């Protein structure tokens, strides 16, 4: 037997990965089965392979022995490694998905380190959740601020006197202002090799191949973070819910992919934002909004994923049974908001949180698409999509498939919301204010159609009472037309 192997998975690419401590060598495996296990966005495949190969190269430059394998599966990669190197132990940081933990945890010689690259252990989250009637993100976030000592004074109270500046962060899109471009790394020899390999594999992928626009190393991730802090953080807060045609990144940070690959430590991102506040470079509402996304929302999603176990994948509280619209895969639609968001996704493998929630998720829920199909599409298409992110975000938040375990009401909205928060509707053939008629906005029609079809399921939700009362009072003729138009939209999008 020959010493200890540290096995580093594709989303654990941190030089602070505890599995690396004291290891005699490192194992990394590209699994062909995983590459072919979905219709992944081409740029996502490229980024993961590029980041893994860059990480292996950095380790080798630092004198570490790396056994980098291309294998049929992770399992066969491990078997070949064990045959050749005969390690006594193979140490692995806790995988970020349940399937990964189940698959790898039971393998011969493999020891899972019960640590992660997150700031909150699932047991700490479970302790926080224990005995609470509702797992409110806001409560968790305040607990995190105090626990992690982020932007609190000596008495555990929030800097500036308020925990949350969301109210200041819902400005509609600016009329003449355009966001600064995010950091774009320069491709190198490893990228050329990855591109050639992917071409040779001829996988069924989604989206455009393009020069890599996402960090693939820790150094690039830091550059991307600092570009955001310098140029976009000051306006991030006020425009974080706004959408502009042709601007998939807006003032968002562009670091989620690097965080989720392990290339960037979330604590570094928080420290950089807080330093910008302290130096007067960025205002409190922007820094607080960013910090909430990192230590609040991201860690909350991570915690709930582990807390609720395997329930997620089979949840379907509204019995939705439709197929995903072809438009989500790049098919043409005359809904300008959808067309622009899909084009942005195809070009970048990214859409920001309001496009994800209020454009894609909203339409899919209103149409009654099967939650598992929406989940797969989000997971495969988005550069930062992993099971722990997408299960709570898609199944609980965007589609209400869990029936309200995490949220007090479904995030359903008509065209007026999109109109208020974007510049999409001006260039659309539909009218966001109309729910009936030839130019009625499909969102507005489908919103009422959704309420009508799901009255029984929504009846007990306090925050849905007002729209349900409006529905009750609706003119019979209007309701008949909404039902007919809604059915036509559902049938159109399914075909
Ligand atoms: Fe989207 Fe409706 Fe606005 Fe058109 S009118 S862009 S479909 S919300």
Search tags:
single chain; 495 residues; mainly alpha; five-stranded parallel sheet; 21 helices; binds iron/sulfur cluster
Write up this protein:
The chain has 495 residues and is mainly alpha-helical. 49% of the residues lie in helices and 5% in strands. It contains 21 helices and 5 strands. The protein has helices at residues 32-35, 42-61, 74-85, 98-105, 122-129, 137-148, 189-201, 218-236, 256-261, 266-278, 284-307, 311-314, 336-348, 353-367, 371-381, 387-398, 415-421, 442-453, 455-458, 465-473, 476-494, and strands spanning 4-7, 25-31, 66-71, 89-93, 110-113. The protein has a 5-stranded parallel sheet, sandwiched between helices. The chain is globular and about 80 Å long. The structure holds iron/sulfur cluster (SF4). Iron/sulfur cluster is lined by residues 335-337, 415, 418-419, 424-425, 428, 430, 432, 441-443.
